[in-house]
Amino acid sequence: MASNIYDIAYELEKALKNSQEYATLQAKYEETRIDPAAKKLFDQFRNIQMKLQEKQMTGQNILQNEVEEAQRVAAMVQQNQKIVQLMDAEQQMSIAINEINKIIMKPLDELYGKMSQ
Amino acid sequence: MASNIYDIAYELEKALKNSQEYATLQAKYEETRIDPAAKKLFDQFRNIQMKLQEKQMTGQNILQNEVEEAQRVAAMVQQNQKIVQLMDAEQQMSIAINEINKIIMKPLDELYGKMSQ
Ligand SMILES: [Ca+2]
Ligand SMILES: [Ca+2]
After folding, report:
1. Judging by beta carbons within 10 Å of its beta carbon (0-12, 13-18, 19+), is residue B87 exposed, middle or buried?
2. With 0-12 CB in 10 A as exposed, 13-18 as middle and 19+ as buried, what is A69?
3. Closest C-alpha among B21, B30, B7, B84 to residue A4
4. Contact call for residues A55 and A62 (beta carbons, < 8 A)
5. Do B45 and B60 form a contact (C-beta atoms < 8 A)?
6. Chain segment B25-83, per-residue pLDDT in tens
7. What is the DSSP-derived secondary structure letter of residue B117?
8. What CA–CA distance (Å, rounded) separates A28 from A32?
9. Which domain holds residue A23?
10. CB-based contact (8 Å) between B91 and chain A?
11. ipTM above 0.90, yes or no
12. Which residues of chain A have a CB within 8 Å of the CB of B97?
């Protein structure tokens, strides 16, 4: 068994890249990417999300027409099966990544927990 | 070599827990925790940081006297060798964690990068 943390991190990278979650995500990205209408809608959705997130993080007001645009694009996204499947694959991958992080960070959480008692 | 991502994540947890960075951080936490004056100052510093961060994230105004209190406590922290050493150990651990995350997330970054072209 490797014991250097970076060696094991590289093993984990390789395992993630060979996982079912990654294969599915890669396939769903590709299906969306090569479909011009789906790709355009997906980019639009991501851009709106990022813009609203940035406004929220920097304490700027979100305008009524921005909320309406976000809702309109989100409704269109839900009608696009390629994007729906891509976002489902993203969520599955996100669940795996969160689980991994919870495992890795356990020793640090224990230290912080002990410190805040 | 294990190939299940969670098996490898547990290996990584164990390796992190056995690392020099972790041993140092644990020792520095303990030295601060058992020193009442250092512990009190450290808690005070963390509470102020968390309060200001929360205000910033929720877009609330940070008051002038809060800025001054944060500066005053930060100056006291820099005079406390136990806390200075603890924060240095936290930074070393943070560098290792960031490096690990960069390695693990590389396949996902590649997917996202390809998608945003
Ligand atoms: Ca289409
Ligand atoms: Ca003291």
Report:
1. middle
2. middle
3. B21
4. yes
5. no
6. 999 999 999 999 999 999 999 999 999 999 988 878 899 999 999 999 999 999 999 99
7. -
8. 6
9. 5-115
10. no
11. no
12. 105, 108
Domains: count for chain A: 1
Q: B66 at the A interface (CB within 8 A)?
A: no
pTM, two decimals, is: 0.84
pLDDT tens digit sequence for A44-98: 999 999 999 999 888 788 999 999 999 999 999 999 999 999 999 999 999 999 9
Query: B83 C-alpha vs ligand 2 centroid, how far in Å?
Result: 10
Using the mean position of ligand 1's atoms as its centre, give its distance from the Cα of residue A37 in Å.
Answer: 5
CATH number for B51:
1.20.1500.10
**What are the structure tokens assigned to A105, written together?**
């960070």
Between CA A111 and CA B26 the distance in angstroms is 7
Tokens 């060798």, residue? B81
Do B103 and B81 meet the contact criterion of CB atoms below 8 Å apart?
Answer: no
Task: Say if the Cβ atoms of B13 and A96 lie within 8 Å.
Answer: no
How many cross-chain Cβ pairs, A to B, lie less than 8 Å apart? 111
